[in-house]
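Changelog excerpt

This revision adds worked examples to the README so contributors can see how folded entries look when concatenated. The first example is reproduced verbatim below.
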Amino acid sequence: MKYKITIRPEAENDIEEAFTWYEDKRLGLGFDFLLQIDAGIRFIERDPNIYKSEYKGTKKHLLKRFPYKIIYMVKEREIIIIAAIHSKRSHAVIKRRFH
């Protein structure tokens, strides 16, 4: 089944902030991060229900090379990316995005 991918603005901001942080650390590292985000989204797209549901039906995919997770939801034929945050960040970030 083909899914529509929607990246919420908050998630886009998460990705942009992480990109900038990594790029400041080492030229090109931010682009490596973006490649991992893209690979993660493509993995999720192939089988979005591979992960168990958590808070309010969200699911998470852990990136391989970076300590980040992609938080998403599946609604019928749509995958909604809610966040792309550091693995150590609190789930309170996700809870705030639902209010």
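The second example, added in the same revision:
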Amino acid sequence: MASSLMPRLPLGVQVYKRTPTFDAETTPKGLLKRHTTKVGTWAEIVVEAGRVHYVLEDADDHTFVLTEDLSGVVEPGRPHHVEPQPGARFFVRFLRAPRGSVQAT
């Protein structure tokens, strides 16, 4: 079910990978078009400067304006894309539950 509220990271997920910092010119094309994360993989879009539009591409097609004060949470398998605005700098952290643990929501 789609929601206009920002998704929340479940308890216990841990960062296992981080992208380099991107700007409007260096953002990989794959992030600019519809894509998803793998099953069990969460992501967090962290803005260092400026604004990044984070678009959830589902029934609501909701857009969040991410800033240094608001990170975007990406749920596993949920289609989305980003639209970095001029002057924006951001990176993406990938998170998952530790092996052998159960993810709590």
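Reviewer comment on example two: The first strand starts at residue 14 and ends at 18. The radius of gyration is 13 Å.
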